[in-house]
Amino acid sequence: MIEPLPAPVRRPRSGRFLVLAVVFICAACGLVYELELVALASYLIGDSVTQASVVLSVMVFAMGVGSLLAKRLRCRAAVGFGLIEAALALVGGCSAMALYATFAWFGGSRYALVAFSLAIGMLIGAEIPLLMTLIQRVSRRAEGDASGTVADLFAADYVGALVGGLAFPFLLLPQLGQLTSALLTGAVNAVAGGALVLLLFGRDLTPRARWVLLAANALVLATLALTTALVDDFEQAARRAVYGGQVRVAVQTHVQEIVLTGRAGAPLDLFLDGRLRVNGRDESRYHAALVGPALDGGPHGRVLILGGGDGLAAREVLRHPGVRSVTVVEVDPGLAQLAREDQELAALNAHAYQDPRLHAVIADPFQWLRGDGYSSGTYDVVITDLPDPGITASTKLYSQEFYALASRVLSPGGRLVVHAGPAKGRPRTFWTVASTVRAAGLTTFAYRATGRSAGFTAGPDRALDSAKSPHDWGFVLAARPAPHPFSAQGAASGLRLPAGTESLTPPSDAAAFPPSTLVHPRYAD
């Protein structure tokens, strides 16, 4: 497979343009692979900051290793580049499906994530030295102007990375989804690499090398095409492995994946990005504990719910006499639409969205509080019904800045209640939420509700066994510091807690839990 000495390129200008175009395409594909790994790992494993750090650091390291290893192929740059692109197209294109398969059938994908990051990084790193050799073959520049060739190559590489980085979140992911996007990117990668070598350097290759490249690319493209045809069947099988056989609805919105399970009278479960958000067996206890103390503690004519697009917190609010209006600020229109139109979920939330007192706003709660929320008047009660603070995507909604914005819309004597995660299962996170609320200038009262169903059966949380899964929900009730609406134990105002709910005494080392801010989030543990 040793290449003979390269023949002079007849059209160096067009050849040079073709090499730079392939550099552009390969850079775009490479960045799509990186972003796809980060996005899927954040969904499957959680904590997007950690997953992004792992993927990017491992890939950059592997790119250096691949660049060093590619030096051995410079004497056979054309065929080496063609085979590397075929391998990269296959590995990168199938990486999303392989990660999802390990998660669905083996319960975890951390090792697979590192392995794919290493493999893809090494293959990407091997591209640049070989492309440099190829572009020097076709470049009309003098040998002494090699720096100009390097500048052109890296310019095409960086611009391609920009296009790939923008195409993934704004075009590929919303239109095609994780799996098909990766497979299509792999096909483009294989076509670009194979076309460059066979069209521009085909005469430099031995007949055996040409056949090997043709066969390799044909095999890769056939594999990617067959896999693409089976994506829907694979997703259904993997979803059954993750969520069981009772999946009723599975919707991928531009914000998250929404899955509803429960058939034939079984309890309805709601999963958001694979995490159990509503457990039909115990959600009534959760929402009663979230809503009841805040509304029973004083006036509650106007109520604001931040999050809670499933309508279940609104259901509890609307049951209280004296409620005149409820505003729900939900970032995902797909979830709000499902809560309004899905027969089972609408029945569970008692058709809250049909109540004329409810006004739904589709917006990011943080941005809404800064803008329209600030000018919409004040509320007697503000309820934050949001995902656990340990999830990176919701960290800003558990920051001191967020609570300061929420306190601005509280009426005199108004109350703010925060879902702060399990108080016993993750005490550091819970008491950090409490200290963050206090840092926003509010007086706090901590309590928890017991009776949470033990053990998760689906999603990233399914790896938790019954002993480790949370058994309670923790809440922080807050109000302006003067006059004091409740004492440390809630007795001063006669605060009533629902059955199965108990107050919590702040730990003696409460100072060890500094508040979380936008620039210093403290919920990573």
TrEMBL record:
Domain PABS: 227-468
Positions that bind spermidine: H287, D310
Superkingdom: Bacteria
Keywords attached to this entry: Cell membrane, Membrane, Polyamine biosynthesis, Spermidine biosynthesis, Transferase, Transmembrane, Transmembrane helix
Entry annotation: catalytic residues: D385
Bilayer-crossing regions: 17-45, 51-70, 82-105, 111-132, 153-173, 179-199, 211-231
Region listing for Disordered, in residue ranges: 497-525
Keyword Hydrolase in record: no
Membrane topology: Multi-pass membrane protein
Catalytic activity entry: S-adenosyl 3-(methylsulfanyl)propylamine + putrescine = S-methyl-5'-thioadenosine + spermidine + H(+)
Residues annotated as binding S-methyl-5'-thioadenosine: Q256, E330
UniProt subunit comment: Homodimer or homotetramer.
Protein family per UniProt: Belongs to the spermidine/spermine synthase family.
Biological role: Catalyzes the irreversible transfer of a propylamine group from the amino donor S-adenosylmethioninamine (decarboxy-AdoMet) to putrescine (1,4-diaminobutane) to yield spermidine.
Protein name: Polyamine aminopropyltransferase
Lineage per the UniProt record: Bacteria, Bacillati, Actinomycetota, Actinomycetes, Kitasatosporales
